[in-house]
Amino acid sequence: MELRENISIDEFNGKKFKTKAIEPVDNKLAVITHYLHNKKNGVSKFYKEDAYTFVKQYLEIKYPKEEITTKIADKALQYLASEVVNVPFPSPEKPKFKFIDLFAGIGGFRIAMQNLGGKCVFTSEWDKQAQITYKANFGEIPFGDITNQETKNYIPDNFDTLCAGFPCQAFSIAGKRGGFEDIRGTLFFDVAEIIKNKQPKALFLENVKGLTNHDKGKTLATILNVLRNDLNYFVPEPQIMNAKNFGIPQNRERIYIVGFRKDLNITEFEYPKPLNEQKIFADVKEEKVPTTKYYLSTQYLQTLINHKSRHESKGNGFGYEIIKDNGIANAIVVGGMGRERNLVIDYRITDFTPETKIKGVVNREGVRKMTPREWARLQGFPDNYKIVVADASAYKQFGNSVAVPAIQATAKKIIELLETK
User: Fold this and answer.
1) Cα–Cα distance for residue pair 146/142, rounded to 1 Å
2) Average pLDDT, rounded, for the chain
3) Which positions ≥6 away from 296 have C-beta within 8 Å?
4) Where are the domains of the chain?
5) Cα–Cα distances in angstroms (integers) from residue 369 to residues 292, 340, 374, 392, in the given order
6) More confidently predicted of 65 and 364
7) Ramachandran angles phi, psi of 400, nearest 5°
8) Highest CATH level, class, for 97-277+401-418
9) Which of 194-199's residues contact partners 24+ apart within 8 Å by CB, and which partners?
10) What are the residue numbers of the active site?
């Protein structure tokens, strides 16, 4: 048998071919795309056998009367290979190091590490919408839930750096040492378990600033104790890094935790210094007037004004905020307040006809939400980064993401040290 037509990864989504054997949220598509991305290096052995098995499963569903041989599966994989490399952010041709990307979101860490010459050999992200965005930009579908042993089994050996923007959780450490056994049941435990089993040369962890005083500081203390004592990594004091210091106009503070395997004899690490230049919102503002749907209705705007007034009368600082063109944005975060605290005035609108059903009419003061593309720029994502999901998902994805330039500046320091060893 010869394949009668090209096939695409999108065909594997189970909608056209009703079967639980082909589901995008399990690891089958992740295995296939990871295999295709690593065909030219030794990492492919971790994915090859299952990649061929899953492709054969699919072809047997599509061609039930045909005998599907390994040769046919190989031809199908050749078709798929072009799809995973013709993307906005392909892997470097001659990578300098290998890394894995856990809790990957939409690939902020990956862009930064690839810019430095890194090759991503494993990535995981459970959110379906984020997986769609990730695939559109990198040609690779992340593995699912990293707490599942099946997912962990696919992590290859001998990568250099582990990257993870893991969620913050409290640990039950009352009266305990606060070590490896005390973090079970948390997502950090899964990160620590991978570090223990794979022993990467370096670690780069990112979290919210609040981790510093989470559970009265016990959470961070436990994390550092596990990394330093249980896992035997040199971990300098974590540092709060602000995105506004690295070329993007957003006041976004996050804690960075860096670590090096102790046998490398790295005993000092200096976080990057802030850049001398300061960007402003005008540097990321839409070049053309955004569509009317981003402009607030008069009723919505009045509601925000009333809400802010009520809080101000009580001495609270809550409420909407308008970012001037020569100012910098507040931290973009998930939820309505992330948008309402980052409103802008844009007088370029000429057509006030509503695009959606709104209460009232479009305001004449030019007050609008920032667009998803502006949020992408506020996180340092290049303009060729594809936004392929609805606005609600896009805001969530960029709000949850890392600030790429700050990540890259810190990662550069990590890689420079590793290159001396």
Assistant:
1) 10
2) 90
3) 304, 343, 362, 363, 367, 368, 369
4) 9-85, 97-277+401-418, 287-370
5) 10, 7, 10, 12
6) 364
7) -85, -10
8) alpha beta
9) 194/100, 194/102, 194/146, 194/152, 194/155, 194/162, 195/162, 195/227, 195/231, 195/233, 196/230, 196/231, 198/155, 198/157, 198/159, 198/162, 199/261
10) 168
Q: What tokens appear for 133 in the block?
A: 């965005």
Query: In 3D, which of 100, 106, 155, 103 has the Cα closest to residue 126?
Result: 103
Q: pTM score > 0.85 for this model?
A: yes
Contact indicator for 301, 269 with CB cutoff of 8 Å: no
pLDDT number for residue 384: 98
pLDDT surpasses 80 at 24? no
Long-range contacts of the stretch 352-359 (C-beta < 8 A, 24+): 352/292, 352/295, 353/292, 354/292, 354/293, 354/297, 355/291, 355/292, 355/293, 356/293, 358/297, 358/299, 358/300, 359/297, 359/299, 359/300
Average pLDDT over residues 180-192: 82
Burial of 213 (0-12, 13-18, 19+ CB in 10 A): exposed
Q: Which residues contact 139 (CB under 8 A, 6 or more apart)?
A: 33, 36, 37, 83, 84, 85, 86, 87, 90
